[in-house]
Amino acid sequence: MDEVISKLDQEIERCLIPFEDARRRLAAIPGVGDGAAATLIAEIGVDMARFPTCGHLISWAGLCPRNDESAGKRRSTRLRDGDTWLKTTLVQCAWAATRAKGTYLQAQFQRLRARRGAKKAVIAVAASILGAAYYMLQRTCAFHDLTAEHFAKSSAVLAQSLLRRLRSLGYDVMVTAEPAHASVSS
Questions:
Q1: SS3 sequence, the chain?
Q2: How far apart are CA 50 and CA 54, in angstroms?
Q3: Residue of 35, 12, 55 whose CA lies nearest to 96
Q4: Cβ burial, residue 31 (10 Å; 0-12/13-18/19+)
Q5: What is the b/e burial string over 63-84, where b = at least 16 CB atoms within 10 angstroms of the residue's CB?
Q6: Which of 43, 72, 82, 142 is the most exposed place for a label (fewest CB within 10 A)?
Q7: Within 10 Å of residue 186's Cβ, how many Cβ atoms?
Q8: In the chain, where the domains are located
Q9: Partners of 70 in the beta sheet?
C-alpha cells in the first residue's frame, strides 16, 4: 500500500512541474502551504481569463452569500453552493492565516470577528486569500502583504470616531488634549 501511495505522490509531483512557479508564489500567502497551493492550482487552474473578475471566481467557489430575497425580506445569508474541495481548502488556509502574527489576514479576521463572529470572519479571510490568488495568477506577481497596520487608524481619527459614538449614546463630551510628555506624579 505504501508503494502505491509513494508512486501516486511522485506522479502528482511530476504533473505539477509546469506549475511550480505559480505554486511557489501561492504558497507565499499566509496560511497557504505547498499542498493547498497545489489544490488551488488543480481546482482553478493558472489561466484566470475564464473569470472576468475576482468576484466571479469568489462566487464560483461559493464564498459569497446566496441571494435569497423575496418581497423585500432577506431570508438566508448562507453560503452558496460551490466547489467543495476549493472551499474546504480555502477555509482551512484561512484558519491557519488567522494565526500568522502581524499579517493583513489576521487583522482582517480580528476586525470582522468582533462584529460578525469567527465563522463569518474566516469565510471573509478565505475570500481574501482567493482574491489574492486570482490577482497573483492573473498578473504573475508575488504576494505582497499589507501588514496588520493597514486597518490602524490615526489617533485623531480614532478620537473623532469615539466622540461620535459617545454622542450617539447620549453623552455630552468635552475633550482636551493631554500634553505629549506629561509626567505622572503619585
A1: CHHHHHHHHHHHHHHHHHHHHHHHHHCCCCCCCHHHHHHHHHHHCCCHHHCCCHHHHHHHHCCCECCEEECCEEEECCECCCCHHHHHHHHHHHHHHCCCCCCHHHHHHHHHHHHHCHHHHHHHHHHHHHHHHHHHHHHCCCCCCCCHHHHCCCHHHHHHHHHHHHHHCCCCCCCCCCCCCCCCCC
A2: 11
A3: 35
A4: buried
A5: bbeeeeeeeeeeeeeeebebee
A6: 72
A7: 2
A8: 2-152
A9: 73
Q: State the cell numbers at 86.
A: 476549493
Burial class (CB in 10 A: 0-12, 13-18, 19+), 54: middle
Radius of gyration of the chain (CA): 22
Give 129-175 pLDDT, tens digit per residue.
Answer: 999 999 999 999 999 888 887 777 767 777 888 888 899 999 888 87
Lowest mean pLDDT among 39-48, 102-111, 140-149: 140-149
The alpha carbon of residue 8 and the mean position of all alpha carbons in its chain are separated, in whole angstroms, by: 32
Bridge partners, residue 68, by sequence: 76
